Each structure stands twice: as structure tokens, then as C-alpha cells.
Amino acid sequence: MSLRMARATSLLTVVISIPLFLSYNIKYQRFPEGIPYVLLYTSGLLSVWVTPVLVLLGLVVCVRILQRSGAPDRAACLAWNVPGVLVAVIAEVVFIMVRRMPP
Q1: Out of 8, 30, 53, 80, which residue is the most buried by the measure of CB atoms under 10 Å away?
Q2: Using an 8 Å Cβ cutoff, are 88 and 13 in contact?
Q3: For 23-28, which contacts have Cβ atoms below 8 Å and span 24 or more sequence positions?
Q4: Which domain holds residue 31?
Q5: Do residues 51 and 44 make contact, with C-beta atoms less than 8 angstroms apart?
Q6: d(Cα 20, Cα 48) in Å, to the nearest integer?
Q7: How many CA atoms lie within 13 A of 2 on its CB side?
Q8: What are 18-60's pLDDT values in tens digits?
Q9: Which residue has the higher pLDDT, 96 or 40?
Q10: Pick from 60, 66, 18: which is nearest to 39 by CA?
Q11: Rounded to 5 degrees, what angle do the CA atoms 59, 60, 61 make?
Q12: Whole-number Cα distances in Å, 61 to 67, 72, 76
């Protein structure tokens, strides 16, 4: 696994999971109506399905990085990949908590 691939996976995971952090605002419509709300709502729906897949991909990447012994960029790859996975897991937890809140 190259550093470039680990960086790209991590950044994509973080970007896709951002709408999950805004789950409360989406659920209770705390955004202006119109196109911004539609874009946020649509990206939120996409994030619900894509973020778990990216978390699993990130975990696979972490395992692949850890299996490489003696690679010079091993620490740098982990430094990029682990925070991306953690941000996505926290975003999923936020989404699940908001989903279980009463209306």
C-alpha cells in the first residue's frame, strides 16, 4: 500500500463522513430550505451507505500496512489512515445516536 493510496483513502473517508456529523441538523431541518438543504440531505443519504464501506476499506488498508514489514513509509501510511477511520467511526456513532433520538 503506497502512501498516496493511504492518503487518498483517508481523505475520501473523512469527506464522505462529514454529512453524518450534521445528522441532527438534517433531521430537525436546521438549514435553510431550497437547494442547500437538498444537496446536504442527498449527500447525507449517500454517506449513510458509503461510510461503512469506507470504514471497512480503511481497516483492510490498516491490516495491509501492518503486514508489510520493513517498509520505510509504514508509519506515514498509518498516520494518514488511522485518523480517517476514527473520524468515520465517530461520524457513524453520531448518526446512530441522532437516529435513535425521539422526533
Answers
A1: 80
A2: yes
A3: 23/94, 23/95, 23/98, 23/99, 24/94, 24/98, 24/101, 27/98, 27/99, 27/101
A4: 3-99
A5: no
A6: 7
A7: 3
A8: 999 988 887 787 777 788 888 888 998 999 999 999 999 999 9
A9: 96
A10: 18
A11: 90
A12: 10, 16, 13
Query: What single-letter amino acid sits at 103?
Result: P
Q: In this structure, what C-alpha cell is assigned to residue 74?
A: 509504514
Higher pLDDT, 39 or 87: 87
- Report residue 24 as a C-alpha cell: 441532527
**Count of structural domains, the chain:** 1
Q: What is the 3-state secondary structure (H, E, C) of 21-63?
A: HCHHHHHCCCCCCCHHHHHHHHHHHHHHHHHHHHHHHHHHHHH
